[in-house]
User: Fold these one by one.
Assistant:
Number 1:
Amino acid sequence: MEAVRKSVTKTFGILTAGGDCPGLNAAIRGVCRAAYDRYGMTIVGIANGYRGLIDEDVRILRPVDFSGILTRGGTILGTSREKPFKAQNTDFNIGEDKVAAIKKNYQKLNLDCLVVLGGNGTNTTGYLLAQEGLNVLGLPKTIDNDIVGTDRTFGFHSALAIGTEAIDRLHSTAQSHSRIIVIELMGHKAGWLALYAGVAGGGDVILIPEIPYDIKAIGRHLAERARTGRAFSIVVVAEGALSAEEARMEKKERKKYRAESPSTGYRVAKEIAAETGMETRATVLGYVQRGGIPSASDRVLATSLGTAAAELLARGEYGRMVALTGNEIGSVNLSVPAGKVKSVPPDHYMIDTAISVGTCMGA
Ligand code: F6P
């Protein structure tokens, strides 16, 4: 057996925050295995994201806790959307400022570093805590793939496979019934998932938040397909997709308008039916996209990012988010993802790929 190596970090806390995704457990295992086996670090598992650190809901993780979890969906630590820097001093059970409670518990638990696995919000909070003097390391997870500083987030590939399979299944029923079927995929601010699943599943129309759509252009595209013998169509819609009309609205007005329909997919289906007169149905895939086992690709990415985080812990290189750049695993300063969303750039090659195979991008 390999001798235990020297490490700057002796004890660290680990938490998962924000929406869950496949690959979180693989990443936890990656960090913990390397940190424990190679460096003998003490690992404090924090329950339910930042909430667990505020409430001191913690337990020491031992190998039995992170063994056999590589393939499991969800997160063994639990998660929450707690944002400690938002709405401080409100609805707080111990009558104390949330950030102050985090700082106090960080000291009390003798942590040398806090490892946070999450999306934009989680890594932004990590950055803000680093500004408050805590040592923090971030790992990029989300099915949305919208974190600045990494080429890919774990969770995305698994959700892409689920979204693609759903489109495949809708294809055959749409064809049998000569219907338009709209499928809504997650992606509130960024359209990566809808774009990639749309291309993988051969969507006839793909609508993403980055390209406000014109219902008339969609209608023309669907009518042309019908005229040339393809009476069915698949329309892939990101939950954050919006019309050109909505894009022109003030934020408040848009929020009110959007609250009037149950979801983007149903609204788009209604608009298409009104515009074309064709029989149209909608399917919202919802949380199915976030559940279940991670894909092989996500397991590999999450494991590599996890073990890379353990190496940063060992060297005492804090204030960073581990990241994938090309084929290399490295890290970026936590300020890089903080407060940002990685949208699909208008000149991204995948948009041109979609258009080149005859897909309408809504404009
Ligand atoms: O985790 C990101 C995400 O999947 C988004 O695509 C979606 O808008 C959001 O989570 C919804 O999650 P929840 O309902 O859990 O807040």
Note: The first helix runs from residue 24 to 38.
Number 2:
Amino acid sequence: MIVAPDGSQVIFVESDAMDDFHYVDGQLHCEQVNLDELAQRVGTPAYVYSKRTLLGHYDRLAAAFAPLDPLICYSIKSCGNVHICRLLAERGAGMDVVSGGELYRARQAGAGMNHVVYAGVGKTDEEVRAALEAGIGWFNIESEAEFENTAAIARGMGVKTAAALRVNPDVADPRTHAKTTTGKKETKFGVDIERARRFFSKYGADPHVRLNAIHLHIGSPIYSPQPYAEAIERALDLIKRLRGDGFEVTALDIGGGFAADYETGQSPLAEQYAEQIVPLLRPFHEAGGRVILEPGRTIAANAGVLLTRVQYIKSGGSRKFVIVDSGMNHLIRVAMYDSFHFIWPTNVAPAHEPPARRDDLDLVGLEACDVVGPICETGDCFAKQRKLPPVARGDLLCVYSAGAYGMVMASNYNAMPRPPEVMVDGDRTYLIRQRETLEQMVEAERTCEPV
Ligand code: LLP
């Protein structure tokens, strides 16, 4: 049982159930919905989300960090569907945005603008203006040049705003993929922690952009609470020095990066991150400091799956290829980061219901397969030598934990339409994004005007 931070709701989250995708008599369900029947109605490929899982992960995080009364800014980049953002905004989440497009989504979702943080190394003047007009809570500033530009625009518009300086605490989690680690010195993000004091002495008195917070984001996913502890200690030390220099620092944004349950039991739970982080930040919070979190993946990843249908079975050398109707165009994580996504047929003999979501399941009658997509690239592969129950043409497969960095990173590569998105709520299903049409893919090209 978990009591929501406002004390009013009691939400039940089973400690070992990280999502609401489960088998009933060999048939995969999302909440109470039979996924084969759903796929018959909406077609494949399709992204399917569980509302209960989505909100359950948000609540779980909120409860774990409740002693810090944090502002939880959902990282829209992880799964930006407006309906999903709206559910979280209604639950009390602020939003973490990185572009004018995400700011627009946050607005469409009805998020409180003063609870929006805006990060990104390359904000354009137009985007900065839109964010100033919207009255967002904080700009997460990543360079001196960006600060000067933001201040100049704010001055020109005659408005005031607040900003956090993003610093690199120079820590890293060895398990985080090279393409998604950001806390080290050699990244394009933020400024080195040693540069922060100079930054504050130069810009700390700006009348239009009030520099009053520190922002961190050390990477994603971070599989251990330890790098957070190190980064937070460095940030608190910096805040102490800045305060010693006479600056007011009222907020600390510790970024996102909490892991998701891609493989059963391989990632810390929200409570385990909180166990290490909360005691470190408690004195800061008790002295009036505002703590901000920017989680995306840990809320959205396990809430979504990608359903894809087997088109053909083919052998090549000693390999068996299972060719499906979705690939790196719809879920690029495996091709880009060598990520693990559990894959299993949606309809299996009861003996083949998976006891856990892992690579090394050892059930009788499994066969090693390469699950590949239709895209004309060798890298278009969801899994190599993965042991699966028998599968045949027409079977439906579920690619798990695809809610975060799935649909948002989908493309039209090979001119294939992007999938629809469906939200399941109990026994009801809602189409929250239509399948793209062939016409929509060429619509913007129906022009050839001189420019
Ligand atoms: N805050 C900042 C400043 C970030 O850059 C990110 C993610 C987040 C928050 C949210 O991180 P999360 O809680 O979702 O881990 N496409 C990659 C992940 C890229 C993450 C980029 N930044 C993937 O599929 O693994």
Note: The chain has two domains: 50-301, 304-443.
